[in-house]
Amino acid sequence: MNVITATSRVALHFELSLEDGQIVDSNFSKAPASFVFGDGSLLPDFEAALLGMSAGQEASFVMPPEKAFGAHNESNIQRMPRSQFSMDLEEGMVVSFADMSKNELPGVIAEIGEQEVIVDFNHPLAGRSLTFRAQIVDVEEVA
């Protein structure tokens, strides 16, 4: 029976949930996801947790923020002039910005004032501990 190594292709069902049990993402009711170890599909610490597992196994791992989406960083919260936005804004909406290199950078509208808008560029799950549940469906070695 193949076990997951750093050279495996893995098919799995997974679920991410918050500390209060709220499910953030899950594919248990869908087809399994597939990835090649190290291809960037999963965060490195999520991959590392799967090492040594084999088809049919299921496990849950509590991932602290530093092993998941990082700590919430106050410097990722920006104040911008309200006049910079030509659209109707609502708190909680995600707006796409471009960084200095013209890469897309999503920001969440945190607060809307008369003169300025506060935009949070942290990952929505930053600063949160997550439970990562995985059920391994298939493991194969890739050359």
> How many angstroms separate the termini?
17 Å
What is the residue-mean pLDDT, rounded to a whole number?
95
The value of Rg in angstroms is: 19 Å
- Beta content comes to 35-45%
What do these coordinates show?
The protein has 143 residues and is mainly β. The protein folds into two domains: 8-69 and 126-141, Chitinase A, domain 3 (Roll), CATH 3.10.50; 74-120, Thrombin, subunit H (Beta Barrel). Helices cover 5% and strands 43% of the residues. It is built from one helix and nine strands, in the order βββαββββββ. The strands form two sheets. Strands 1, 2, 3, 4 and 9 form a five-stranded antiparallel beta sheet that branches. β7 (104-112) and β8 (116-120) form a beta hairpin. The radius of gyration is 19 Å and the shape is elongated. 13% of the residues are buried. The mean pLDDT is 95.
Please summarize what this structure is.
This is Peptidyl-prolyl cis-trans isomerase. This protein is mainly β and 143 residues long.
Layout of strands and helices, then pairs:
Blueprint: E1 8-18, E2 23-26, E3 33-36, H1 44-50, E4 58-63, E5 77-81, E6 94-98, E7 104-112, E8 116-120, E9 130-141
Antiparallel strand pairs: 1-2, 1-3, 1-9, 4-9, 5-8, 6-7, 7-8
Catalytic activity: [protein]-peptidylproline (omega=180) = [protein]-peptidylproline (omega=0)
Organism: Marinomonas alcarazii
GO molecular function, one term: peptidyl-prolyl cis-trans isomerase activity
